[in-house]
Amino acid sequence: MSVERLDAIIFGATGFTGQVVVEDAVDIFRDFKWGIAGRNESKLKDVLVKVGKRTQTDLSHIPIIVADVNDQKSIEDMAKKCKIVLNCCGPYRFYGEVVVKACIDAGTHHVDVSGEPQYFNGMQLKYNDLAQEKGSYVISTCAFESIPAELGVQYAEKNFPGTVNSVELYWESKYNYQDKSSKAILHTGTWESAIYAMQHAKEMLSLEKKLNSEKMPNLSPKLWMRPYAHQTEGLKSYFAPFPLTDRAVVQRSQRLAYVYEKKRPIQFEMYIGMKSLLMALLLPVFMLFGAIMAQIGFTRKLLLKYPHIFSGGLMTHEGPVEANRKAMEFRFTLKAKGWTTGTPESAAPNKEVVVRVTGKDPCYGITSCALLFCAKTILKEQNKMPGKGGVLPPGFAFAKTSLLEEIGSYKSGLKFEVLNQ
Predict the structure, then answer these.
(1) Spatial distance between the Cα atoms of 350 and 338, rounded to a whole number of angstroms
(2) Where exactly are the transmembrane stretches of this chain (predicted)?
(3) β-pair partners for 358
């Protein structure tokens, strides 16, 4: 007799991010049958006990599945036991593909919190056709990277009275340290992923070139990334270019919307805010210095071994204390420019709409919330998603679903507002 499949399994549930996801799943997944998975059964049991106490919920009925990325059969068995896997086990460069392949082979959906371009670009190139054949949706970057940016662009377009030509995103953060003993904002898992991504930067560029091979329209006026520190009207911070994961993911979503739907792509650039002009000027220098260190074996080992030193205490093996984590805030201000009527390519845009996306605990709370709502959307609204499956960026995958409204109405989700219309 066949056993009924679970709706969802949270894989990597004993990790720093995984435990946050399990706690949020108690509420967000209350109408679903879900389980947790990892390589250590006793630690998985401890997670359920700990989360149960924190949420005052009996979680003794939650299934536990033992699965290890070094044991391919265990991963395949896990994938067969559910409709969707929420993969919290990184760095994905090393541990992601075996889970993706197992899910696709089983016709199971897959979402993850990766911010690693080599991984998610590689998966799109390698498995998109097979995922379509098997009816499996594989969506990466369902986290702080890149759900707020993707949904922010959608929200700006929905509130624009015409055609959007470009969107520029300005990212500002606020750190309200409640516990002065630590200033960490991230666990070192994120740091390690970033180091490995910088180590293989050439591979990333090569994958992007192969992935983005479709012929695109010649858009005008062209939006260029400003490579220098600057300020923008209405905001006090000094901004530096930040051409990392969000930028690539949003641009890929826009590209696919044009390829499959002939929708005019929105040009996108993003910047990160600093308190002073000096910090904004130095940020690209620090990033370049880190990228160079990541290329050299000895210095790369130092970066991985002493993250707290090289990050100025922002990244630690212990991760952020909960009080500080939940007090951290972020603000995305998106400036959309375009035309109120038509798309007069020879004329400058005649309209600007400014929207804002805000939230607390972005690195873990928003990441957890985004991952769970992305999975929930796939379970409930597959008929609104493109095709019958595929390895897709979230902006394209969820463009016609209710994800924006769902995550925007959740108590600890994202807040969307129009500042100027």
Answers:
(1) 6
(2) 277-298
(3) 331, 415
401-247-389 Cα angle (round to 5): 40
- Of 94, 126, 98, which Cα lies nearest the Cα of 110? 98
Q: What are phi and psi of 174, to 5 degrees?
A: -135, 125
- Is the dihedral angle over the CA atoms 43, 45, 49, 55 positive or is it negative? positive
Could you tell me if 48 and 38 are in contact, meaning their C-beta atoms sit under 8 angstroms apart? Answer: no
Residue 345 has pLDDT above 80, yes or no: no
Banded pLDDT at 3 (limits 50, 70, 90): low
Buried b / exposed e along 335-372 (16+ C-beta atoms within 10 A):
bbbbbeeeeeeeeebebebbbbbbbbbbbbbbbbbbbb
How far, in Å, are 43, 264, 335 from residue 220 at the CA level?
A: 55, 11, 17
**Higher-confidence position of 49 and 194:** 49
As a whole number of angstroms, the distance between CA 225 and CA 293 comes to 25
Q: CA 225, CA 271: separation in Å to the nearest integer? A: 9
Of the chain, the end-to-end C-alpha distance in Å amounts to 59
**Spatial separation of the C-alpha atoms in residues 132 and 134, rounded to whole Å:** 5
Q: Which among 78, 73, 82, 141 is positioned nearest to 109, based on CA atoms? A: 82
Q: Is the pLDDT of residue 214 over 80?
A: yes
